[in-house]
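Dear colleague,

Following up on Tuesday's group meeting, I ran the structure prediction for the two-component complex that the binding team flagged. I've pasted the input sequences exactly as they went in, so you can double-check that nothing got truncated or mislabelled along the way. The structure tokens for the whole assembly follow below. Feel free to forward this to whoever is handling the docking comparison.

Inputs:
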Amino acid sequence: MAGITVARPDVRSPDELIAELEALRAAWRETHPFRIREIKSRDEFPRLADAKRRRHAGGDDNHRFEGERYLNCTEKATRRMQLRKLVDEGGQTTVGGPQVSHPLLSRWESYAYGLTPEEVTVLEKGDADPAELVRRGWWLSMNRSSHFAVAIGSGLVVEGEHKLRSAELLAAIAEDEKRFRAWGVPNVEQALENRREHAGVDVDHADFNEDVVRQFVTTPELQDEMRRVFILRLQMFSGA
Amino acid sequence: MGAQPPFGPDDLKAPPLESQAFIAFLHQEKARRYPGPPPFYAALYDGRLSRDDLRLWVKDQYGYWDHGVVYSTGAIFVKTNDEPTRTHILRKLVDIEGENVVQDLSGSTVPAWEELWVRFGEGLGLAREEIVAARPFTRTHFAITTLCTYARYWDWTWLDGIASFYAADLHGQQYLGRAYAALRDGYGVADEHLEFFRVYLGDVATHLPWEEEALAYWCCTTERQLTAARAFRERLDIENQLLVGLESTRAEGTLALTVP
């Protein structure tokens, strides 16, 4: 058998692929640490309000990228799971559930920092921040044009991180809640619900994303595409 | 926007119609363009269809309920940045894909329209596999493809898409409502096999009011009214074209062209 070399298989098993993606995240976090946000002074509100203004500028794009994933999906059961996610994020109240839409949750958080409903509406109708325009333009394009499993799997970056950090995120929110109440912030529950929702529901969504990756990202080409998208999404949240 | 040249200053000189006048205009357009039911439905109402005609109807239209209506509605959802309207579209998607998708929230076990359509076919004696694997008439395929493309890309704006929903729901409420009665009373189809019609008609009745309200509010310029009215007519055309292959097969006694 001398002289025969066996090529390393190009296709990773689902476990290997998930482990590889998590290793990419861990390596990235060595140079770009994930910060658990705690608001320790009310003096931070103006800075947080400015960040939210940039986020609202140009409108909320949740339905666009989540909807692109839905449209993209050629596997019926997965598509319907993605519809279930659209309901979670577009408002469970639509079908008699308890949670309002994520865009409304985002507004509630902004109101706590001093934005008004009218200001948010004006911002949403206005131009996006230029950097956000191109970041979100790429994000939309990727969700529109990638294989559906890669598009859904790309949720592993943020929702997956929230799953990993859920306990810490919820603990920070609990501390902020005490401070918000001490500071007399109105509608504390609403003010924190956006963060609480993402620290919680994202766990289920991350599990869905991972299941889709395990089931469908099974060729060398798709696995390469998944790695590339995963890295670009990490970069997107680190100033790229 | 299909291949039509753009509206110019002269086309846009007239002020927009008042909102309720615009809605009335859409109804007039529907009556003008299609004063009667599609011929296949007329034959259905008159009791002139055989069981085999009904079975062919189920097989040919499966792709519309399974894909055409799902994809086109989702495509308009993605384009809609007005949250109240988008929320209604999300509810419409849940109706189409099956309320059982959100059973944990609503308790509903109602399945997708396509599943109910299959069950209707089973009630007529078809096997599920026959329905799901059936190849549609080429004209039906063209109609579904046009619907999906116009909804997905730049041919229809989000508001044009709402106008297309309105056209399809008016058309469906009118003609599938009569089909339900004819199947039950004239063809002796057992009520248990007609759940599709009850669910569909119930769902459509909840969507027409908000579609009308959205069109009345957002079609507030002459250009929006012109393009929405065109999309409304185009959707009526698509709905009618969906039945052309069936009707020509029935009337001429030879199968129309079929997708290879």
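Chain B has a mean pLDDT of 97.

Cheers,
M.
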